[in-house]
Write a structure and sequence with these properties.
Order of helices and strands: EHEHEHHHEEEHEEH
Distance between the termini: 13 Å
CATH superfamily of the largest domain: ArgJ beta chain, C-terminal domain
Helix content: 25-40%
Structural class: alpha/beta
Oligomer: single chain
Number of helices: 7
Largest sheet: 6 strands, mixed
Strand content: 15-25%
Number of strands: 8
CATH topology of the largest domain: Ubiquitin-like (UB roll)
């Protein structure tokens, strides 16, 4: 049960910085969207989610009271790095997971549309089992783009696996060899890029593969 809107987790982050609660809350809310709310293992959410960030002020520094305080950028960067690392650990620790996949969608109508397309790809059982089977089946990517319900231009659609250009202008890219795509899918960390050819919306989400082990774990126990 790991999906955006926090997933099944309890996260506690502490800093010795001194920062006003409204400033810290703004940072945490923004960064959550790009970290913990951008991950999915199986598309299922939970009732038991908490992210708590505490600023103890133990450093003795003068408090950060405004978002435009130059020190706020430093704190925001450090907080992002911690939250991002923890979020990816959640995905890597998905039940039965063997692959971490970064899915970047560009060219969408809005950033929100790109996010919905990315999650459609990330939560597709067919895409996730292709990751597990190390099968670079880009037709499954196209399917997931289509079922997202967002605008996409079939004749401008482009797909890449890592540095391998798989499709462009809605067709297989000239010179693409399935062996090259398969080689990328054999990695433990996979990058999938999709440009839907509409506008400038962009988003990145992270997911993992769906393996026999996931099925066994969730079929063999009762809560």
């Amino acid at each position: 049960m790991i999906a955006p809107d926090m997933a099944t987790m309890l996260v506690f982050v502490f800093t010795d910085a001194a920062v006003a609660q409204p400033v810290l809350q703004g940072m945490v809310s923004d960064l959550t969207e790009a970290t913990f709310n951008a991950i999915t293992v199986d598309g299922d959410t939970s009732t038991s989610d908490t992210l708590l960030v505490g600023a103890t002020g133990a450093s003795g520094m003068e408090p950060i009271l405004r978002h435009d305080d130059p020190r706020a950028d430093t704190l925001r960067t450090a907080l992002h790095d911690v939250m991002h690392d923890l979020a990816l650990q959640v995905v890597r620790d998905g039940e039965g997971a063997t692959k971490l996949a970064r899915i970047t969608v560009s060219g969408a109508e809005t950033d929100a549309a790109a996010r919905r397309i990315g999650l459609s790809i990330a939560n597709s059982p067919l895409v996730k089992t292709a990751l597990a089977g190390e099968d670079p089946n880009w037709g499954r990517i196209v399917m997931a783009v289509g079922k997202a319900g967002e605008r996409a231009d079939r004749d401008r659609l482009a797909i890449r696996f890592g540095d391998v250009q798989v499709a462009e202008n809605g067709w297989a890219a000239p010179g693409y060899r399935e062996a090259d795509g398969a080689a990328h899918f054999r990695r433990s960390e996979i990058e999938i890029g999709v440009d839907v050819g509409i506008a400038a919306g962009e988003a990145t989400v992270w997911t993992c593969d769906l393996t026999r082990r996931y099925v066994a774990i969730n079929a063999d126990y009762r809560s």
